[in-house]
Structure formats: structure tokens, C-alpha cells
Design goal:
Layout: H1 3-15, H2 22-56, H3 65-75, E1 82-86, E2 93-95, E3 100-104, H4 105-108, H5 113-130, H6 134-162, H7 168-205, H8 214-247
Parallel strand pairs: 1-3
Antiparallel strand pairs: 2-3
Helix pairs in contact: 1-6, 2-8, 3-5, 5-7, 5-8, 6-7, 7-8
């Protein structure tokens, strides 16, 4: 739930966009319910993810996250990607710019099923990069534009909402920028799901996981994927809301 959504609803209520008739008021309440529902769903998904990783971090395995990552990279013929440790919790990521698999300290040094799942997932992105996986290439190409949009869209949207009757073009520009970030969220879904699939296949094939713990690795990565699904749905709902504000402006 983006805080700008709350600001925009408040702004509309005060300048009369959603109080023109009973139908619009009901529509406003419906969006409040939708946004609050998404916020609660996001909280539940995050809490579930943290709970599972805490549980699976106590399930030992024979290799550390660093060793898992290096083995998966080498098994896929990748030798130009470095595995490094990064600070924070669940800050693990693959950086295609400098070809590094960045593992949080709790994953890098941990010999647990949770660490194995995370390390293999991030290496899944490295394999995608090496094999020119189309959705990853598309997402990487959008990064500069999305970075620009993220820096400016909050202010443009807020100004656009407050001046929508006089200068509707400002809000339309903000919507275009937000649409770009929404597109990015949806392109991210197949990238993350495919990386998890590659990770699980390799973990089983390499004998890192077995019948006793493979389901735990699968459950951990599935919970992580849900966070991206909720983020994409939240972004889409917010985008539709801004479009409704634009379409409902007074001519």
C-alpha cells in the first residue's frame, strides 16, 4: 500500500472529487477497503515469509550459502560471477551489472536449507543472465526508466491530483510514470518464478536437497514469490485508482 494512495484519497475528499454524489462516495470507500485489504495481505505474506525462513534456517544442510552458490554457478558453466557477502537481512540479490551474487550475512555463512534455497535462487538469476532469458533482459532494460520514474512520480502524481481540473496533463504524466513501475512489477514475476524453478531443479539434481528437505526449500521460495505477486497486484490497483481520478475529473 503506497502512502501516496492515502494522500490522494484525502486530497480528493477535500477538493470534492469523490463527494459529488453517493455513487462516488461509495466508490471511494470501495478503494479504501481494497487498499487496506492489500496492505493486510502484504503484512500476512511478509510475516509468513519471515516465519518460514526462521524455521528453515534451523534445518541444517552440508554446505553454506556461499558454497551452494559457487557450486551452482560452476555446474552451469559460469565462472565469471563472484559470490560476495552483503549486510542486512533478506538483502540477497544478483547484480547483472558487475556480475555478482550478493548474499546476506545470514545466508552467506549459514549451512541451512533456507540459505541453500536463497543462494540457489539468486544463482538462478545468474543463469538467466548467462542464457539471455528474455524477461530478465526486458526487466534490465527498464531499470533506468523505472529509476527515473520512481524519483519523480510521487510528486507529479500528488501535484496532478491537486490540480487535476486545471491541469489534467500533469496527472496523466504521473499515471504514465506509475504505469511504467507497474509494468516492471509484472515483468518481475516470471523472472522470479523462473529463478526459483531453476534453483529447485538444480538443488534436487545436485543432491543438495533430498526427500526430507526439498519440500522445505520449495515452500520457502514459494513464500518469497508471493511477496512479488502482492506487490504487483498492489501496484495495479493503485494505477487503476489514479486512472479513475483522471477519468472522473470535472471538465
Amino acid at each position: 500500500m503506497n502512502i501516496l494512495s492515502f494522500i490522494s484519497i484525502f486530497a480528493q475528499a477535500n477538493i470534492g472529487y469523490t463527494t459529488q454524489d453517493t455513487g462516488n462516495v461509495s466508490g471511494g470507500y470501495s478503494y479504501w477497503i481494497l487498499f487496506i485489504g492489500i496492505a493486510l495481505l502484504s503484512y500476512i505474506v511478509q510475516a509468513n515469509l519471515q516465519s518460514k525462513f526462521k524455521k528453515f534456517s534451523k534445518m541444517p544442510i552440508g554446505m553454506t550459502g556461499r558454497e551452494i552458490a559457487e557450486k551452482m554457478l560452476h555446474d552451469n558453466g559460469i565462472y565469471d560471477v563472484k559470490v560476495i557477502s552483503t549486510s542486512g537481512q533478506l538483502t540477497d540479490h544478483y547484480n547483472p551489472t558487475n556480475k555478482t551474487v550478493n548474499l546476506s550475512e545470514g545466508v552467506y555463512n549459514s549451512a541451512s536449507i533456507a540459505a541453500a534455497a536463497v543462494a540457489a535462487h539468486e544463482c538462478g538469476h545468474a543463469v538467466q543472465h548467462a542464457t539471455a532469458y528474455a524477461p530478465l533482459k526486458m526487466r534490465s532494460a527498464l531499470v533506468p526508466a523505472v529509476s527515473f520514474a520512481s524519483n519523480w512520480m510521487t510528486w507529479i502524481l500528488l501535484i496532478g491530483i491537486l490540480t487535476v481540473n486545471a491541469f489534467p496533463g500533469i496527472l496523466l504524466a504521473g499515471i504514465a510514470l506509475f504505469a511504467l513501475t507497474t509494468l516492471f512489477s509484472f515483468i518481475t514475476l516470471p523472472v522470479e518464478i523462473d529463478a526459483s524453478h531453476r534453483a529447485l531443479v538444480w538443488l534436487s539434481r545436485a543432491g543438495v536437497t533430498d526427500s526430507r528437505n526439498h519440500s522445505a526449500a520449495s515452500s520457502a521460495l514459494r513464500s518469497a514469490a508471493y511477496t512479488y505477486v502482492v506487490a504487483a497486484l498492489s501496484s495495479l490497483a493503485t494505477l487503476v485508482y489514479y486512472i479513475m481520478i483522471y477519468l472522473g475529473r470535472r471538465d
